[in-house]
Amino acid sequence: MQSVLETCESKMQKSLESLSREFDGLRTGRASTTLLDKIRVDYYGAETPINQVATISVPEARTIVIQPWDKSVLSAIERAILKSDLGLPPNNDGKLIRLNFPPLNEERRKQLVKGAKATAEQSRVAMRNIRREAIDELKRMEKASEISEDERKDGEGKVQKLTDSFIEKINSLSDEKEKEIMEI
Fold first, then answer.
1. Between 29 and 92, whose confidence is greater?
2. Are the beta carbons of 26 and 116 closer than 8 angstroms?
3. Global confidence as pTM
4. CA 42 – CA 44 distance, rounded (Å)
5. What are φ and ψ of residue 121, in 5° steps?
6. C-alpha 89: how far from its chain's center?
7. How does strand 97-100 pair with strand 90-92?
C-alpha cells in the first residue's frame, strides 16, 4: 500500500511542477527569462536552447536582453524569436537583442486569466485522475488479498488527503498567477 501512496504523490508532484512551468511561460506583461526556455536556436546545424548560446538578463521590469557569446548567431536567435509564439518583435542592434514587453490592456489581461484558470483546471483533473488510479490499484490489491478492506479504506483516505493538499497548491498557484496578471 505504501508504494501506491508514494507513486501517487510522485505523479501529483510532477503534475504540479508541470503547472508551475506552464505558468512561468505565461506572458504577464512583466519580463521573465523563463519565457525563452522553450525557444531553440539553429546553432551550427543543431537545435540548441537559447540560454546555451547567449546570456539572458532582465535589466528592467519590461525588458529582456539577450547577448550571444558568438555574434554570428544573432540572426539565428532573432529568427527563432520571430518563429516562436511570444508575439514580441526582437530589436537587434548588432551586438545584442532586446525584447520589450508592452503593458497589457484590460481585455488581454482577462484573456490571460481565463487561460490560466483553464490550465489550472486541467491540472485539477489530472490530480483527480491520479487519485482514481491509486484507488483502483488499492481495490485491485484488496481483491488479490494483498491488503485487507480496512487497509484499503485507510489508503483511500490517505490518497484523498494527498489529493486535497495538491489541489490546494494548484489553487494557490492559480490565485498567485491571476494576481500577477491583473496588477498594473
1. 92
2. yes
3. 0.69
4. 6
5. -65, -40
6. 23
7. antiparallel
- Work out the number of other CB atoms within 10 angstroms of the CB of residue 53: 22
Q: Side-chain half-sphere of 137: how many Cα atoms within 13 Å?
A: 16
Nearest residue to 130 via CA among 170, 182, 96, 99:
170
Q: What value does the mean pLDDT of the chain take?
A: 89
Tens of pLDDT, residues 9-50: 999 999 999 998 888 777 666 777 888 888 899 988 899 999
Ramachandran quadrant class, 44 (left: phi over 0; alpha: psi -120 to 50; beta: rest)? left
Residue carrying C-alpha cell 558568438: 70
Four-residue CA torsion sign, 124, 126, 129, 134: negative
Give me the helices (H) in 25-148, please: 74-83, 106-143
First to last CA, the chain: 49
Q: How far is CA 68 from CA 59, 65, 159, 168, in A?
A: 16, 10, 48, 41
C-alpha cell read off for 174: 492559480
Q: Give pLDDT, residue 115.
A: 87
